[in-house]
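Subject: Sanity check before I submit

Could someone independently write out the structure tokens for this chain? I want to compare against mine line by line before I put it in a report. The sequence has 385 residues.
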Amino acid sequence: MADMKALQQERIQLFKDLYDNKLPKRVPINLVLSVEFAIQYAGMDLAQAQWDTSMLEIAFDKMCGDFITDTNPAMAFRYPSYYKILGARNFVMSSSGFLQHPEVHGFETEDYDYFIQSPYDCIMERVLPRIYTELDTNPVQRSIVFAKAFKAFFDDVVNGNIIIAKLTEKYGFSPIGGFDGFCEAPFDFMSDQLRGFKNIVGDIRRIPDKVVGACEAALPLMIKTGMPPHPPSPYGATFIPLHMAPFLREKDFEKYYWPTFKKLVDDLAASGQSAYLFVEHDWTRFLDYLYELPENTRMMFEYGDPKLIKDKLGKKHILTGFYPITLLKTATKQQCIDKAKELIDILAPGGKYMFTFDKNIITADSVNIENLQAVLEYVSENANY
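---
Independent answer below. Compare away.
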């Protein structure tokens, strides 16, 4: 137990040094594996274990013990129970046991004016009953459904968090290094759950001023959503997945996406909360914009030239990602290790780098497990400063 506590303190120090602009002892590893991966890897039934969260401890325990990482790899923040109670159209359990996010929208063109005037009321009164069919009823029944859904939400999420916290202590993982909040860039929020990808693209052509107004109206909601439930810490972060920017022309990015996104990250930073960005797809066109974000913004890149991004951003911001998980499925063990070495040689000099993959690993059969373990072992033993 004492050895595990010492290991945990060593891992915590890696991330503290990383975030304090010091050179860590070695490159920290921040591995994230989905709840679906854990269940499959443990040989359990995917649908059953997501409904009975007491089964997750066995699955998470096996995963934590078999993969080298400095943070707890277990991630679970969506469970089917409350989506089922709500009659969700936006997250639907497939026959294979995966929660899928179909392209739906709950926000109509005629809702823009009301949303700009009162975004919270618009979401509660108009958007939610369209996305969650069980809320499209009389006020009394709606309140009962909400109460049931919140009870299921807190039961499952709290149980999952208790399991993860227990395993963090058991395996000596660092409790810092990942994120403790979640929100979206205002334009992504409008494009994702509200208008949908197809509709928002049409809106910026037909009613551009209303899109701008809606993003500005959504900004305070995103700031509030992104704040953690406890006082902000320089070692915490709010996770912000960035969806739509690569699909926009630069002039549209400048008008619709960037102003409220930058204000969101700036305001979080001013409160003491860093942003952990998942820079989805290819943001090469927008690297100069990313540079302007507050120092030590954490950026997980899916695509892009790591050398170019290191040169442009690596002295100011903390970089991660880049390693293609597809390689873990298709390449030899040595090729996988060579790729890790290549990225470490490019990204590690000078610090401000932690190791993870270009996206979270969702299924156990999407990678060669031995290749994954070999890469993690290599990084843990060969990325010392």
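---
OP: Matches mine. For the report I'm noting this point. The CA atoms of residues 220 and 264 lie 8 Å apart.
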